[in-house]
Write a structure and sequence with these properties.
heterodimer; A: 442 residues; alpha+beta; eight-stranded antiparallel β-sheet; five-stranded antiparallel β-sheet; 28% helix; B: 243 residues; alpha/beta; Rossmann fold; seven-stranded parallel β-sheet; 44% helix
Chain lengths: 442, 243
């Protein structure tokens, strides 16, 4: 690179949060707008927020990674209408805390507080109750992107509307997202969180449907063969009385969790963890502060470290209501037959409309996390799970599952080819690429 | 009393602006690109409720940058602090640069800070204020890399020495920092032989020292030992130091 361009390119190894995908990358860390523009227009690139995607969504080996960490500023706040404009590198935890301090809430936040706003848009993340609040796209009013050929573009539902919509679950292909305007809602004082014990995943669906309107709604389940699906559905109702954030709250989960030297989630470890979860998050009622409820992963540092250097994988599938019970039955059978080590199953209710590659629709989403995904038994189970989910009309969450291959993604997303064509129309030279887009053939 | 940060959009300048806003100082931020300045000003206003004005100007191309700054101060409280976090180096500064490139390096590293200081000196003396300059470890001893940059920084240090000589700390605090390696978009990814300081850490120390007299020092302080060694290294050994 010429010195006149005014930036350095570091060569460094980047790894996905689940540790399954890694690459040796060229990274640019611009801190001024003109440095974002300085990359020659024909260079393949991908923008990177905090790099906390489970999969390799923000890097690839032979393209320049543009790290947006410096673009993390708050740009404008309209306290009358609840509109907050931020740069795309702003971390969702910081944005949410600022909003809360002004009495406003961002209704959809992912679990990791360091996820960037640009990342939340590019992955169209969901929050604690997607059936009620939809996905991130429902709360974004406008976006600014940088296209290497067209320059800076302002997008909203009226201007450049097609490109605006393509940015959600566009995985960075429609351009580098630089700014966004978010629509907030008035914040509650806190949440009254209740847990309902369920004996299995079919019962979990009934409980989720019964509390569809709750602002917080998700389930945690045991994945062991002899207790498959047992767990608790937690639902939170808005509390009128303010609940103070605990003075000794855990810090934000780091972008990279240093793994333990060995994987702790063997059968004994998983049994102990499930007992702990049942004890701490079992049936009952508690009052929690809004911030505490938004980022439960802040308390999961040990959990992620425990996967060790081999990492983990999460398969998340959205199963339509019609085939859900049959899917759960088949899955339980497969778990009993193969006895994989499942560290956790999480359930959520969805009631939206799938658009593009977004993880949305109507049904129950099950997220299944497994340690050591490359081990023989684990890999065989993941393959069987993928096949079962596809057989029952499941839709995969592309931003979560690093084991998912293009063929399975094409089967799981009805209009895959059409979605891909629409997305690549904004990037005909395929300048934006990541491990994720290459693996899935986007 | 207003603090003026020149070179405020990146690296140390940005960190200084953040630290000064945190301490409640009204700010005038100066850099070349209005987009960066607007973003910074908005952020500081929202996070710290700070009073922030901005001036976008190509300093190296301006014959009298001080005049533009004085005009921008009209609606702000009197200036009491001037922090000159402005500077530029380039990797091909190895004795092969043409006249234009040499002129740019001298302008941004030497002429601009001196011209701004001269223009603001009366206001700073009136407020018994503080002026802060930033040199570089590169100016310790001339080498075959960063040739023009090092010369400019050495010149700037001499200028600050003269200021200290001219003004008692009771009338004007003159502070000069010789910086070691600093994390920036230009040093990002470089394999440097010694640890790199975080701009935020340096900025915290600089702001904490603003009321504490006149001095010239290394930052981080341990770079003083390195500079001492480099200065006293016999010539035949120093000539062999290429990295």
């Amino acid at each position: 690179m010429s010195p006149r361009r005014g930036f350095a390119l570091a060569e460094t190894d980047l790894r996905s949060f689940d540790r399954s995908e890694a690459a040796h990358c060229h990274v640019q860390r611009p801190d001024r707008y003109r440095l974002l523009e300085a990359l020659p227009a024909d260079v393949q690139r991908m923008s990177r927020g905090s790099g906390v995607s489970y999969v390799g969504a923000s890097f690839a080996s032979d393209c320049v990674v543009q790290d947006l960490a410096a673009f993390d500023r708050l740009l404008d706040f309209d306290g009358e209408r609840g509109l907050l404009s931020v740069e795309a590198g702003a971390r969702i935890g910081d944005v949410a805390r600022f909003a809360l301090a002004q009495g406003w809430l961002l209704p959809v936040v992912p679990g990791h507080p360091r996820a960037s706003i640009g990342g939340c848009i590019a992955a169209d993340v969901h929050g604690k109750n997607p059936a009620r609040d939809g996905t991130f796209r429902a709360h974004v009013e406008a976006i600014e992107v940088f296209d290497p050929h067209s320059g800076w573009l302002h997008l909203d539902r009226n201007r450049n509307a097609e490109r605006f919509h393509a940015c959600f679950a566009g995985f960075g292909i429609p351009g580098l997202i630089s700014k966004a305007t978010l629509r907030l809602v008035p914040a509650p004082g806190g949440y009254s969180l209740r847990g309902v014990a369920v004996a299995g995943l079919v019962e979990a669906r009934e409980v989720l449907l019964a509390h569809a309107g709750a602002p917080l709604l998700y389930g945690w389940h045991d994945g062991r063969a002899d207790r498959f699906g047992r767990g608790v559905i937690r639902f939170g109702l808005e509390s009128k009385e303010p609940v103070a954030t605990p003075t000794r709250r855990p810090g934000d989960l780091p972008a990279t969790v240093k793994p333990w030297p060995v994987c702790a989630w063997n059968r004994s470890g998983i049994a102990a963890m499930n007992r702990l979860i049942a004890h701490r998050h079992g049936p009952g009622q508690m009052h929690v502060a809004v911030e505490q409820a938004m980022f439960p992963l802040n308390e999961a540092r040990t959990y992620f470290a425990g996967f060790g250097a081999e990492g983990f994988m999460e398969a998340q599938w959205l199963l339509p209501h019609a085939g859900y019970a049959e899917f759960v039955g088949s899955l339980a059978g497969e778990v009993a037959r193969q006895r994989p080590r499942i560290s956790l199953i999480a359930s959520k209710l969805f009631d939206g409309q799938a658009q593009g590659f977004s993880f949305d629709g109507k049904g129950i989403a099950l997220a299944i996390q497994l340690p050591q995904p490359k081990a023989r038994v684990q890999a065989a189970f993941i393959a069987a799970l993928t096949e079962l989910a596809l057989l029952h009309g499941g839709r995969p969450n592309l931003i979560k599952d690093s084991s998912l291959q293009a063929e399975a993604a094409q089967r799981g997303i009805a209009e895959f080819a059409a979605c891909r064509t629409r997305l690549r129309a904004f990037d005909p030279q395929q300048l934006h690429a990541s491990m994720l887009t290459r693996r899935l053939g986007l | 009393m207003t603090a003026i940060v020149v070179g405020a959009s990146s690296g140390l300048g940005r960190a200084l602006a953040l630290e000064l806003a945190r301490s409640g100082k009204p700010l005038l931020l100066i850099a070349s690109d209005a987009r960066d300045l607007d973003a910074m000003a908005s952020d500081l206003r929202l996070r710290f409720k700070a009073t922030v004005a901005t001036l976008a100007v190509e300093l190296a191309a301006s014959a009298d940058p001080g005049a533009r700054i004085l005009a921008s101060l009209a609606d702000l409280p009197p200036a009491s602090m001037l922090l000159l976090a402005v500077g530029m180096s380039r990797s091909d500064d190895d004795g092969t640069l043409g006249a234009v490139a040499v002129g740019q390096l001298l302008a941004i590293n030497l002429h601009v800070p001196i011209a701004i200081t001269q223009a603001l000196l009366p206001a700073l003396l009136e407020s018994r204020g503080t002026i802060v300059g930033f040199g570089s470890i590169a100016g310790t001893r001339g080498r075959s890399r960063n040739i023009v940059y090092a010369a400019a920084k050495r010149g700037l240090e001499t200028f600050f020495q003269s200021l200290r000589h001219r003004h008692l700390p009771s009338s004007l605090r003159v502070q000069f920092y010789r910086l070691g390696f600093l994390r920036s978009n230009l040093t990002f990814g470089l394999k440097l032989p010694l640890p790199v300081a975080e701009p935020a850490d340096v900025a915290r120390k600089v702001v904490a020292q603003l009321q504490r007299g006149s001095f010239a020092r290394h930052e981080p302080r341990w770079w003083g030992i390195i500079a001492l060694l480099v200065r006293n290294l016999p010539w035949f050994a120093f000539r062999r130091m290429r990295d």
